[in-house]
Design brief:
The relative contact order is 0.06. Strand 31 and strand 32 form a beta hairpin. It is built from three helices and 46 strands. The longest helix is centred in the last third of the chain and has 10 residues. With 657 residues, the chain is mainly β. The strands form eleven sheets. Strands 25, 27, 28, 31, 32 and 33 form a six-stranded mixed β-sheet that branches. Strands 34, 36, 37, 39, 42 and 44 form a six-stranded antiparallel β-sheet that branches.
Length: 657
Amino acid sequence: MVIGEISHSNSLWADVKVYQDHCYVSNETGGGVDVIDLSDVDNGNVSLVQRLTLGGLASVHNIVIDEVSGFLYPVGSNLNGGRLRAYDLSDPANPTFAGVDGTAGGVYCHDAQVVTYTQGVYAGREVAFCANPAAGLDIYDVTNKSAFVRLSRITYPGIDIPHQCWLSEDRSLLYFGDEGDETNQAFQTRTMVFDVQDIDNPVYLGEFSNGSSAIDHNLYVKGNLVFEANYSTGLRIFDRTDPVNATEVAYIDTFPEDDRTDFVGAWSVYPFFDSGTIIISDFNRGLMVVTLDLASLKLTKVGDTPQLVEPNAPLGTGVRISELTGVIDGATPALRVRTQGDVSFTSIPLTAQGLGLYDATLPGAPCGDTLEFYFEVSDTQGAVFTLPVDAPASLFETEAVELVADFTDDMESDTGWSGGIAGDTATTGQWVRVDPVGTGAQPEDDTTPDPGTLCWVTGQGAIDGGLGTQDVDGGFTTLMTPVLDLSALTRPRIIYDRWYSNTGGGAPGADIFVVDISNNDGATWTNVETVGPTGPGTNGGWLRHAFEVADVIAPTAQMRLRFIASDVGSGSIIEAGLDGFEVADAVCTDINTCTADFDNDGDVDLGDFGVFGAAFNSMTGDANYDAAADFDADGDVDLGDFGVFGSQFGRGDCLDG
């Protein structure tokens, strides 16, 4: 419903900010800043008070207001080269000029956030965080309007057109967007993060991305969420519980036609209404009103769960619990674990490590046993959340076995691998075994301990060469193992370190890295894994992968693997690497011959007697019934089972290896 209209300069875009009962509207064509009276807006009345042109003010990119101090800051104006300016709003209808950035080296300020600190070491100081295209992040003390002081200046990798920034609510972190890096440098949509706890010495912490190609625009932080209006991909919402590795948790694509790298779609977003309502201003579709429906808490696994672990070896595991719209009940985070085949779970409290991280230790398991587990937590309203989300129907699991090495290759010598084989079509970037020259897309070091240096990579560039020097171009290149005889192994398992990067260049995220296996010397192939075109494992970094051969194909005496990197798109930077190749057999060499050795320590002693005694005189369905103590499996633990236990009590030779 439209309740009033005010004419405005014909500007491609404008920004509106409100202070008390007035609003202020910018433009980029001329005519100054509109000052509009909203005092009777509830009755449908709005009126233009004036167009502020004081001192020759004509065009303004954006308007920043510090509601605590009562000052308005036009940014990107036609005056003083676009430097930060201040206007006093003591009379909201008549802003008066108060000061301008006159510091040596001062530059155009495109956008800013200005805040007055009311507590801590900066209490009483008014500070401006400025996104400056010529510099990066500038931080000013603007408490004294006649003498702004620049406290610090910091840049970041790949700086192009610094655009806009916003503080976390505790003012410890600053989230920062660059409007030019996607268009001019082919970056994927990214957000930079700075530690600004010390405003005199800010620290660049890193960046996060959702892997899209859209230009990022205005972003705002509310609690643990970052709201970003990212042009062609619309509103994107990130969970920042892990501040530098924020993950996308929701979005609405306001420009569904495509995800082009262009100035279309979502321009800005306002997520600060107490009601939870979110408004989006969109170039193509106008004002959009949405709400966010997220679970109260979100659980994310920390690290991978190994499929196999050493027998009787405890295993650390962890989870990140994000408070999205709710609060964690601190007494409830728990790890639930059982041995496969058991009905009930044992509860192990999770230990808080800070920043939403919780960890616990899985108990060691006897060889051949599989542990099943899941995570659980409640919010303060009593809602229960699990990971996996449908646990205990789905569970994480790991099996205790011994891995006995059969073949290892650290690539330091030639063991019969073939790189760049007949039929490959890549014009550059064929597989070579070298001490790699690192780039932003290719590793600098291998993964094997010193003095090892060699690994397989796709092309060897020159020292200080460019990002695309000798990367994969014009087709595909294949690396193939020697023939591997796995016929005598019980449960052969293959493990390797891989590197893959496809996020650079003009068309990132368009290619894949393929790993195949053959059990007939390459006559036919079966896929092991395909990495990409987007998602985990596509942005470089060594990652260790393992799989059980029989899960993919029947082991034989004629096994081979091949690793294929390709560039079949239009101009992306493709680099791959391989190192640390192993074949191992998953076996149990120690066999426990005592069914009464419940703790699997090799002897039947008082500890095992305590377990048996707790289950004695119980039957199926009783809380203390233990199937392991029901030796004759007749549904109850009685004198017959006691006889079996008694015959083994005192034995110390249970493990036969």
